[in-house]
Amino acid sequence: MSDIMTDMDTRKIPFAEDRFSTTENLLGFFLFRDSLHHMGEVSFSAMKTYYCGAGCKMCYLKDDWLPRGEMIARNEGLKISPFIEHKFRKIFEIFGTVECLDDLRFIKKTHPDLFDFYKRNGKLIGAPSFTDNALMQQYRIVLDDLDMKRVFQISLSEEFINKRFDKIVEVMGLLVQKYGIIPVFKVIITSENRLEHNPEIRRFIDKVRHLVDKVEVQENIEQETRGINGLSGDNGDLTWDDTYYFENIEGGNRGMYRVLQNFIFLIHDRMYFTFEESIDADPKKACYNLLMDEPSAASMCSQTLANKLATYRRYASEIQFRDNRYFEYFNLIGNSFKVNHDFNFIPAPALEPRFHVVSQLQKEGFVMYKEGYFRNDGRPAKSIIEAIQK
Question: Which domain of life is it from (predicted)?
Fold first, then answer.
């Protein structure tokens, strides 16, 4: 290994800037932009099956929910045992950045044991990313009942803003007084009017801009592409989230496949790569079982990475229309790499040094070098990920 990496070096690592839809090197994209990039954050629900009763009109998951009675029944009598709470806290320690998914109003009313868990551990967990009704239903809970780590994101629909303009401004001001500037504020355009033809939304953005760090405007939420317009800087160009692939399948259902480069979901004792797959809590689609061995940063990296490759192979086997780069990517990546669980080396491009998990790997003996993260256990370097020899 060469010199140990300095703080200045970590800011010079050439993480690729190209997008999935335009990259000419899918293998390079995986190593630089996907691989272990899900290790940056975990979204958490204390419930066995995620439930939200806010009833937001703009909810993009409204067609994916299990029947309300089934969701409630799966969580009936649920309590947080000391064993599970220990596991939760260990996961929080590994990831550092944790965001609550739960409907705090529902939990306060129906699951007092879970609400007590949030009272004990709120400072380790970010508040939910509030949308429309959820903001009004839950803001007093995070102001008066719970002390949480932060409020990271608020997403509001154009229609809701037009109805509750002044109240929303007031509520956001109260949240900022307790939790500081809100990092991300997102406006969902639900009408046919684009932002440039929407003076009321522009007026609202101007009204709250001092309360937030970054403003995004998302259009076409009901479509298969989701436009995101960043407004925090001078660049007003519309960009598209190109990591989703939708395909109509038998029975009129819609299959959704995505590049799994974003955060991971912990639904009680199982981890999932996508929100959609976490809703029905199918253990066959879980990428990590919290009830198994004691979590460590190293084991979390290798086990979730192995399951990501397995998920890509599953995607490739399910996709019917294969003349596209999504199938090419899932098939190529899923069948080009294998994971070594007895690794002592992580290549630098696979894991961004800004992620909190890096500090946890260092506690487990890994040292950050320019080539990557190496634990000197007396063996030659053995990478967490290895190309399959064909």
Answer: Bacteria
